[in-house]
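Before relying on records like the one below, remember that each one covers exactly one chain. Contacts with other chains, cofactors or solvent are not represented anywhere in the record.
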Amino acid sequence: MRRERVADDIYVFTSELYAQVTAGLVVTSAGAILIDTLVFPEEAKAIRQFVEQRLNTKVRYVINTHYHADHTYGTCFFPEAIVVSSALCYEYLKTRGQVGLERTKQRTSALQEVTLRLPTLVFESGGMEIRLGEKTLELRPSPGHSDDLITVHIREDRIIFASDTVMPVPYFVDGRYDDLVRSLENLRGGGYENVVQGHGEIILRGEVEQKLEEDLQYLRCIREHVEHAIHQPDPQAYLDTIDIEKCGKSRIPLNGEVQKLHEANLKALLNHYQAMQKA
């Protein structure tokens, strides 16, 4: 696991075991707030050890940005923390999350210790604020990657943990294309010092607006290709010729996994358009 310090009291942890997924730590005089928890027990435990032994403090809150396993499985290793999420994230964890964990344990021995810990402090639409010590965290709905996703903005530092709203390639298979476009547009002009992606490298201040525009351009590109594909004799065969680089993205990030995400995006959007044609 890689640890980076992005401000005097803000850290980013990047998994070396699964898809470069990230978690964040905000340290205050009154304790710490953990934003997502990674997936494998050994990395979640390493975060806790760092907090308690190196920083000599405790995690007071854990924020689940959305219900996906790679962001929530480590929550159970912080049993004394208040777990915060949207109400929809709570419902998804209680239903989809529990079923998914049971299936995953059957094929992944490294996750046998994991138990599902449900949020204990939830909010409806509109977001909420958490004030701890000298830090204010603004939790804002940001659907698209998934319907329940939220971002976390540290007001005093102008650092935003964008979760999977911002990734090396936008990904909406478990959410909605139009929602993701709106959520990315809502991030523009935010004046952020850093944007922490849900996976991959941190986006620095001078790169943020360009990154957001590139992501929106990618989404426009795949939409255009899908709209063309539905008029072809074999839409999927046409889309199979559209690799990620034809839509302006590199295939290198996340050890090449972005190409698979791209292919899944195209298939999901094609299915959506075909369903609308039949309706």
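The mean pLDDT is 97.
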